[in-house]
Amino acid sequence: MVTIIGVQDGSPAKAAGILPGDILCAINHTHIHDVLDYRFAVIEQSLHISLVRDGQECTADLRKGEYEELGLEFESALMDEKKTCGNHCIFCFIDQNPCGMRESIYFKDDDSRLSFLQGSYITLTNLSDADVDRIIKMHMTVNVSVHTTNPDLRNKMLGNKQAGPSLRHLYRMAEAGVPMNCQIVLCPNWNDGDELHRTLADLFGLLPAVESIAVVPFGMTKHRQHLCKIDAFTEASARAAIEQIEAVQAWSLQANGSRIVYASDELYLLANLPLPSSDAYEGYPQYENGVGMLRSLMDEFYDALETAEYQGEPRALTIATGTAAAPFLQQMMTDLQARFPMISCQVIPIRNDFYGETVTVAGLLTGQDLLGQLSGKDLGTMVLVSETCLRYDDIFLDDMSRQALENALGVPVRKCQVDGYVLMDMVLGSNG
After folding, report:
1. Residue 92 has what pLDDT?
2. Torsion of CA 9, 12, 16, 21, to 10 degrees
3. 27 forms bridges with which residues in the sheet?
4. Alpha carbon 396 to chain centroid, angstroms
5. Is 82 among the domain residues?
6. Which pLDDT value is given to residue 101?
7. Are 8 and 73 in contact (CB under 8 A)?
8. In whole angstroms, what is the distance from residue 401 CA to residue 403 CA?
9. 273 and 387 co-located in one domain
């Protein structure tokens, strides 16, 4: 049962006489506990709704369009509290944050509903057999943090004695045909080498339910005091992982017509190897996991550059980004200036002093590092930063706002999507 806090004007729910304060109990005899029950139930166009109003049971019947929203508002998007993570993963990035940050930074979610709604990854340790029943019934797509299929090693890596046994959910969902995207956070001398081979072999045994697998390197910050020792990736260890993954890709491409497994951009950068072509990403199924993001950005940018036009005044601006992406962006801006000499766009790589120099991605840049390394420089008419480092009302991870950074630098600071066409428009002044 979930309390309704608002009913939108002009909605089917409003027309049916449903009121704020009513308690939603069931829709078409499906009991409503959270957003998944609700989303599953409102697919139908004819709805019989069971409510409690002022302590009395009542009903409402209505019809709506096939894709029309019912018009009910609830206190939270999940219509329930988030499920927190009960693991103590040796590689957990949240545990590598310094003290004193805002409370939300330290929240660890491990909720299958967020996996469905937002694409987040779950470890399965929070799932009950009843939860799996519901996932199968609702034909959900699930994103799973696997890391290893060795039960004993999984117990150690996730710091949870239920981590190994919870793999049964993975196999049961695969047997039922639940579509799954999987990820492996690779830790040198833990789950690489022979263990990675075992994990990939086990996951390939679950095709076609397993649709894609991302292998991403463990991210190490300078705040790992009192945490489990994990060796940092070297160029050699990153190359060994890439070679292993690409060998599996070659086999799978011949055997299955698809690579299935993909290494993240960061792993290629650590290995000092060129990024694969766009074709090698097969539609970017693991894009949000940082797999092919740079390749996609560059392809879009150069596609936009072929037809771009500019007849405006001379223009100068700055892109501030992480040290990993900086060389790629610098080459893109050099090529743009070759076509439009009146446009000067400098790229400034920002060293991550907050988390440590081993953290090189733009999404983990803080306001204080941007301010410290941009202050006193000629930045032109604006500074562009990746939208990935600005979440929750334009706030950086260290709680500095975009507006505060803009005020301190004295030039506009604009966030840019990770999209080559949008980047082109912003550099040319066509957007923002």
Report:
1. 87
2. -60
3. 30, 49
4. 17
5. no
6. 76
7. yes
8. 5
9. no
Average model confidence (pLDDT) for the chain? Answer: 91
3-state secondary structure of 15: helix
Same domain, 103 and 217: yes
**Is residue 87 in some structural domain?**
no
Provide the pLDDT for residue 2.
Answer: 87
Phi and psi at residue 420, to the nearest 5°: -65, -35
Tokens of 262: 């993909």
Three-state DSSP at 135 gives helix
139 & 274 share domain: yes
Residue 194 burial (C-beta neighbours within 10 Å; 0-12, 13-18, 19+): exposed
Give the domain CATH number at 47.
Answer: 2.30.42.10
Cβ neighbours for 304, distance < 8 A, ≥ 6 positions apart: 420, 421, 424, 425
* In a shared domain, residues 121 and 266: yes
Q: What is the pLDDT of residue 80?
A: 67
What total of structural domains would you count in the chain? 3
> CA angle 147-116-300, nearest 5°?
80
**pLDDT score recorded for residue 6:** 92
Within-domain flag for 274: yes
- What is the SS3 assignment for 345? strand
Whether residues 20 and 160 fall in one domain = no
Query: Do both 68 and 121 map to the same domain?
Result: no
Same-domain check for residues 329 and 403: yes
What is the domain range of residue 127? 94-290
Name residues of the chain where pLDDT drops below 50: 432
Which CATH number is 99's domain given?
Answer: 3.80.30.10
Phi/psi-derived region of residue 386, left when phi > 0, alpha when psi is between -120 and 50, beta in every other case: beta
How many Cβ atoms are within 10 Å of 309's Cβ, its own excluded? 8
The predicted pLDDT at position 302 comes to 97
Grouping H, G, I as helix, E, B as strand and the rest as coil, residue 264 is coil
Q: What is the dihedral of CA 301, 264, 118, 419, to 10 degrees?
A: -10
Cα separation, 24 vs 51, whole angstroms: 5
Quick one: 99 and 247 in the same domain? yes
9: amino acid identity, one letter: D
- Strands across the sheet with 210-217, in order? 142-145, 180-186, 210-217, 261-263
Handedness of CA 114, 119, 124, 130 (dihedral sign): positive
> Is 80 contained in some domain?
no
Of 248, 265, 290, the last residue of a domain is: 290
Query: For residues 312 and 340, what is the distance between their CA atoms, to the nearest angstrom?
Result: 10
Residues 50-74: pLDDT tens digits?
Answer: 999 999 999 999 998 888 888 999 8
pLDDT at 109: 66
